[in-house]
Specification:
237 residues; alpha/beta; 40% helix; globular; EAL_sf; EAL_dom; EAL domain-containing protein
């Protein structure tokens, strides 16, 4: 798919020249599955120029720029083999036209959607939350897998109200560090997360010790620096 075939709401705008220069390429991080026959799944992460504070840069992007970046990521990985997870924010899911255009691409066998900021749901009223739940259901009905990224225990109740069981939920690196001091405590966290998702993916795996803790916890998949030799990069410049 070419960039001009991206959702119309995103293709109206492009990244401004300063933003375009700062996004230097995409890192394709392998997701290592332990118990399921899934191979070649990678998360697409944008990389920025040296000296640019990545967290601030992505936080300050306009909604249209975020959509355009999503389109650039999608266009970059479509010629490649394997499956790829792309990040969408809760606010992007609230744009029904954007969601419908994603559905129109019919790329569910290639693209997995990750909701990157599940905590944002807590700031919405009940009507707004229902709009998000409807968008997720539409994507799932369109054969897209939908994952929850960076899910924290305090987010679980709000998402459970949807009645949805996500294809995967992800434990981020900070939560992993907090709970992995005790293998038993971490295993309980993984079991709790299984109520929200069919699979539990652990981010921030950096060492063989981390790997063993996750293996014993019955997590389904791992991601992190430990697998850096299998990362790939796509340059934009």
């Amino acid at each position: 798919m070419q960039t001009d075939n991206c959702p119309e709401t995103a293709s109206q705008e492009t990244l401004s020249p300063p933003e375009e220069v700062r996004v230097t390429g995409f890192r394709l991080e392998l997701i290592h599955f332990l118990r399921r026959p899934l191979h070649g799944v990678r998360e697409v992460l944008s990389e920025v120029s040296a000296g640019v504070a990545a967290e601030d840069f992505f936080r300050d992007l306009s909604e249209e720029s975020k959509k355009q970046l999503f389109c650039q990521q999608m266009a970059s990985v479509l010629p490649l083999s394997g499956r790829y997870t792309l990040n969408l924010s809760v606010s992007m899911l609230a744009d029904a036209a954007f969601v419908e255009q994603i559905l129109a691409q019919k790329l569910g066998r290639k693209i997995i959607i990750e909701i990157q900021d599940p905590g944002s749901l807590l700031r919405l009223n009940s009507v707004e939350q229902q709009t998000i739940f409807t968008a997720v259901k539409r994507l799932s009905a369109g054969e897209y897998q939908v994952w929850l990224d960076d899910l924290y225990p305090e987010h679980l109740y709000a998402w459970s109200r949807s009645g949805l069981i996500f294809d995967a939920v992800k434990i981020d690196c900070h939560l992993f560090r907090q709970f992995s001091q005790s293998a038993a405590v971490f295993a309980r966290l993984v079991r709790r997360y299984r109520d929200a998702g069919k699979m539990v993916v652990v981010e921030g795996v950096e060492s063989s010790e981390d790997y063993i803790i996750c293996l014993r916890s019955a997590a389904d998949a791992l991601q992190g620096y430990f697998f850096r030799q299998e990362w790939r990069r796509l340059s934009l410049h």
